[in-house]
Amino acid sequence: MEIALRAALISWLAADPGLSAQLNAVVEEAPSRTALPWLAIAASASADWSAKDRMGREVRIALELHCRGDRPEGAAALTAAIETAITALPAQQNGFRVVSALFLRARAEQRGANTRAILIEYRFRLLSD
Q1: Rounded to an integer, what is the distance from CA 91 to the centroid of its chain?
Q2: pTM for the full predicted model
Q3: Best label site of 9, 48, 97, 112, fewest CB within 10 Å?
């Protein structure tokens, strides 16, 4: 279910009209030749969250936003739009249901050449159909 959730989340975020207008890429791993800003899955991990009658997983996904700018306000607005889109992910997916999606933490880092990296981590609890 972890891989299926990753694929569903990337597809969902890439299809969001507001995000696609602001991001040059929404991908599963860091793109090698894409202009900033872009969003990618940095890492994920899963653990058992099964019930008596259904298989389940608790999946933690960390997304990393890379953008440019010396003012944090621009990155803050884009980060808020990403978080809004994540929480709007439809519960029913192909082969599983998202029982809950919870924001865990974020970390922002100003880097050289006027770039910024923001890590956003969520916990998803899933049950198979």
Answers
A1: 15
A2: 0.93
A3: 112
Residue 104 dihedral angles phi and psi, to the nearest 5°: -105, -55
Backbone angles phi, psi at 9, to 5 degrees: -65, -45
- Give all strands of the β-sheet with 96-111 in edge-to-edge order: 25-27, 38-48, 56-68, 115-128, 96-111, 92-93
107: buried, middle or exposed (CB in 10 Å: 19+, 13-18, 0-12)?
Answer: exposed
- Give the CA distances from residue 63 to residues 54, 75, 87, in Å, rounded to whole numbers and listed in that order: 28, 14, 14
Q: Would you say residue 3 has pLDDT above 90?
A: yes
Could you tell me which of 57, 78, 75 has the C-alpha nearest to residue 111?
Answer: 75
How would you classify the pairing of strands 92-93 and 56-68?
Answer: unpaired
Q: Where residue 127 falls among pLDDT bands split at 50, 70, 90? A: very high
Tell me which CATH code domain 2-128 carries: 3.30.2000.30
pLDDT in tens, 30-70: 888 899 999 999 999 999 999 999 999 999 999 999 999 87
